[in-house]
Design goal:
Blueprint: H1 2-19, H2 26-32, E1 46-48, E2 63-65, E3 67-73, H3 77-88, E4 99-103, H4 110-116, E5 120-122, H5 130-144, E6 150-153, E7 158-159, H6 164-172, E8 177-186, H7 193-213, E9 223-224, H8 226-231, H9 242-253, E10 255-265, H10 268-273, H11 275-291, H12 295-306
Length: 307
């Protein structure tokens, strides 16, 4: 009994070290770290990554936190390819089979690009609106990957930092953390000088907002533990501000963290309507949502402005 307890403690300690990217120490760790003894139950949310080089040029197992990615999309063929390339390549990348694109009726090549990349495409009558698309995608992802340790929700027109998945794994190594998000910046390439200044002002006000409230928007790459998400009732099936409602529920469940990297967001909506004007509109709609909760009225107005 004592040996079993000591062995289990050692396995958990090794798992935490591997999630943080710290190599195991000692000859015994090289033989058994991550591979595990026979008959041991797998740790929830962790899987073996057999692509990790061993000490002597061979291969050895390494425990990593499995992340499933859910991307709501509507006519995002132009931007989706760059996002998929970013999250499925490089060290610590997410497997393409763990990326779920929840399509809300695209008429362009969005679904074709996702399928060619090896991602799972979700379509159906329930995938209408961003909140419903996210909810359907999360349900499908967790049904296909019940051992996932994190759900990462990304907008199709945003790019996470190159080490985004590794940052999430590092953050969730702390059991007190239930989820979090990244900072935000705009892709200002091709913008004029005055447009860049106004977009920086938008970023500044957004930083003040989420710094004071701890509530993140969807274009910040929200991630969460699956069990916490289920306990919070899942993603709210709202057409607008589903991210705000989700963060409010998650804050009640535990600690949300802001990771050091920043999401690079497309400024197209702000450039189309004017950065300051769009900022004021968003602030006004968020205030109405918090005070009155009249979602359908301004969600329809928001959809008309986007269309």
């Amino acid at each position: 009994m004592v040996r079993r307890r000591l062995r289990r403690r050692r396995t958990l300690r090794l798992a935490r070290r591997h999630v943080r990217g710290v190599p195991a120490r000692g000859p015994a760790a090289g033989r058994r770290g991550g591979g595990g003894g026979r008959g041991r139950a797998p740790l929830h949310g962790l899987r073996l990554d057999n692509q990790q080089p061993g000490r002597f040029g061979g291969r050895r197992g390494r425990l990593t936190l499995r992340i499933v990615v859910v991307i709501p999309a509507l006519n995002e063929a132009e931007t989706l390819g760059a996002l998929l390339a970013r999250i499925t390549r490089g060290a610590g990348a997410v497997a393409a089979a763990d990326v779920f694109v929840s399509d809300s009726g695209s008429t362009d090549a969005t679904t074709a690009r996702a399928a060619v990349a090896g991602c799972v495409v979700i379509r159906g009558a329930c995938v209408t609106g961003r909140g419903s698309a996210l909810r359907a995608g999360v349900d499908a992802a967790l049904a296909a990957a019940p051992d996932a340790g994190a759900v990462w929700m990304l907008h199709a027109d945003c790019l996470p930092p190159e080490d985004g998945a590794a940052c999430i794994r590092g953050a969730l190594a702390d059991p007190a953390v239930v989820g979090g998000a990244f900072g935000q910046r705009f892709n200002t390439s091709g913008c004029g000088r005055w447009a860049r200044h106004r977009l920086r002002l938008v970023v500044f006000f957004n930083r003040v907002r989420y710094g004071l409230t701890g509530v993140y928007f969807g274009d910040q790459g929200i991630f969460v533990r699956p069990g916490i998400l289920a306990a919070a009732g899942g993603v709210p099936p709202l057409d607008l501000f589903e991210d705000v409602e989700l963060c409010r529920r998650l804050r009640a469940a535990g600690k949300l963290v802001l990771l050091p990297g920043r999401m690079t967001t497309s400024p197209r909506r702000f450039l189309a309507n004017g950065p300051i004007r769009q900022l004021v509109r968003d602030a006004w709609m968020l205030l109405r949502h918090r005070l009155r909760g009249d979602g359908p009225a301004y969600a329809e107005a928001y959809a008309r402005r986007r269309g």
